[in-house]
Design brief:
Largest sheet: none
Number of strands: 0
Shape: globular
Keywords: Membrane, Transmembrane, Transmembrane helix, Transport
CATH class: Mainly Alpha
Order of helices and strands: HHHHHHHHHHHHHHHHHHH
Pfam family, one: Sugar_tr
Low-confidence stretches: none
CATH superfamily: MFS general substrate transporter like domains
Transmembrane segments: 21-43, 63-86, 98-117, 123-144, 156-178, 198-221, 290-315, 327-347, 354-374, 380-400, 420-439, 445-465
Number of helices: 19
Oligomer: single chain
Strand content: under 5%
CATH topology: Growth Hormone, Chain: A
Membrane topology: Multi-pass membrane protein
CATH architecture: Up-down Bundle
Distance between the termini: 14 Å
Domain Major facilitator superfamily (MFS) profile: 27-467
């Protein structure tokens, strides 16, 4: 081990011994604001697309579902493009700078959506937004995982995920408020504005404008983030990394906490890697992990996006009224909101792969309730279970995927799995929205849930342990 490698290893060892979050908590909030917008954008199409289809594309509400598929697929194609092309830049030029760039792209896409003038322009705007979101999620989860304490990586990824759930909640409920007609609860939202004034034709435009505003706020806040010390070390910037770690240590000791003894010093690579993907595609260990994680994400995202982006349109195609379908989706997001707190408390207590099984079982259970019961109140309970189930595994799997690749190619590894995995979501939504016109509700939900069930089986059978281990032990 050279002198610089030894010094780098000591800095990382000092960082790994820190027992708690050691940056300002405001930085969690800054990252969280960006994720709030990201998930606002993912979920705002769920309820609002019916009004978009009626007012911009001039079709009936029951004809919205087939038009949704290509739009979601376009968004996810953009996601894949952004994830695979922009995320590796984070491994080259840094996490913080790319977090600003990706949020800017997302803001531009959302603003374009607000002024879309036909189907093609609406689709193009969704593609641009997807490009920003795809890279952003990969970099955010990499950043949080690299600065979080070893024993609680899933906790802090899940805490940021709480903002994501708030964004999803706002995306659906603001859509319900601005784009649906009022109706007595639970058949609708009594104070909904979607049948009067500007909201009757442009409620959905206002939604995307709100999203763009949130994104621009996120850009301003992210400029203040510190760089990841692990990334700095991977580029040989030992002095900059040590200064940040020293401040982290001081932050902990100022709280009256005592720093544990240094763990073993592990070898560190302190040189640039020109092509981050080569670190994964030419390494047997990381190729093996890719072979497990990629099909898992690909199949699981088919379930996730079929419900997240299309539940309202699917229910409408099955005969529910627009307001009723919107209420079921909007109330279901309560289950999504519970994900962050539950995952942050319990996420590090079990193996990462166990959470796929838990999510799949709850998704099947919730979906069956929605499919088999015509009672609105029971359907709402089923939707809450459904939303909790198809989301509870996600922040844990984000952590698992981030842990599975080395610092010098960590964002690229995340992007390969999450980015290509989204192709499954896009293709699945296209297929599911077509099936919604020919299958009964029960059969439709069986098809949707089956993808997550298969993904869980892959994870449980082939998954590997990372919980509680140091990042450089997992992925040297």
């Amino acid at each position: 081990m050279t002198e610089s490698e030894l010094k780098a290893g000591e800095i990382i060892a000092r960082m790994d011994r820190i027992p708690t979050w050691a940056l300002n908590y405001i930085f969690l909030g800054i990252i969280g604001i960006g994720e709030l917008f990201t998930f606002f954008d993912i979920f705002n199409i769920n309820v609002s697309f019916v009004q978009t289809a009626v007012t911009l594309f001039h079709v009936t509400p029951s004809q919205a579902a087939p038009l949704l598929g290509p739009v979601v697929l376009g968004n996810l194609i953009g996601y894949v493009i952004g994830s695979l092309s922009l995320s590796p830049l984070s491994d080259k030029i840094g996490r913080r700078d790319m977090l600003v760039i990706t949020m800017l792209i997302t803001a531009i896409g959302s603003a374009f959506n607000a002024v879309a003038f036909n189907y093609l322009s609406f689709l193009a705007a969704r593609v641009i937004t997807g490009i920003g979101i795809g890279a952003d999620l990969a970099i955010v989860n990499t950043y949080i995982g690299e600065v979080a304490p070893t024993k609680y990586r899933a906790r802090y990824v899940s805490l940021v995920f709480i903002f994501s759930t708030i964004g999803a909640f706002l995306g659906i409920w603001v859509g319900l408020l601005l784009t649906t007609p009022p109706a007595p609860f639970p058949n609708g939202l009594p104070i909904a504005l979607g049948a009067s004034g500007i909201f009757a034709s442009a409620g959905w435009r206002i939604m995307y404008a709100i999203g763009a505003l949130l994104a621009f706020i996120g850009i301003i806040l992210r400029i203040n983030l510190p760089e990841s010390p692990r990334w700095l070390i991977s580029k040989g910037r030992l002095s900059d990394a040590e200064n940040i770690v020293k401040k982290m240590e001081e932050k902990v000791t100022s709280k009256g906490l005592k720093l544990p003894p240094l763990p073993n010093v592990l070898p560190q690579i302190t040189k640039s890697v020109s092509v981050p993907y080569s670190e994964i595609l030419t390494n047997k260990l990381y190729l093996k992990r890719l072979a497990v994680l990629l099909p898992m994400w690909f199949l699981a995202y088919t379930t996730v996006y079929s419900i997240a982006s299309g539940l309202t349109s699917l229910l409408t195609a099955e005969g529910y009224g627009v307001s009723e379908a919107g209420i079921i989706s909007a109330m279901g997001v309560i289950g999504f909101i519970l994900v962050g707190p539950i995952a942050s408390i319990f996420g590090d207590h079990f193996s990462r792969k166990i959470w796929l099984g838990i999510g799949a079982l709850l998704t099947v259970f919730g979906g069956m309730i929605v499919a088999l019961t015509p009672n609105m109140f029971i359907d709402i309970i089923g939707a809450i279970i459904l939303f909790f189930g198809f989301n509870v595994w996600i922040p844990i799997a984000y952590t698992w995927t981030m842990e599975s690749f080395p610092t010098r190619a960590r964002t690229s590894g995340f992007a390969l799995n999450d980015g290509l995995g989204h192709l499954g979501g896009g293709l699945g939504v296209v297929g599911v929205t077509i099936l919604a016109t020919i299958l009964p509700v029960l059969d439709l939900f069986v098809v949707i849930a089956s993808f997550l069930v298969i993904a869980a089986i892959i994870a449980l059978a082939l998954g590997f342990m990372t919980t509680g281990k140091r990042l450089d032990e997992i992925s040297p």
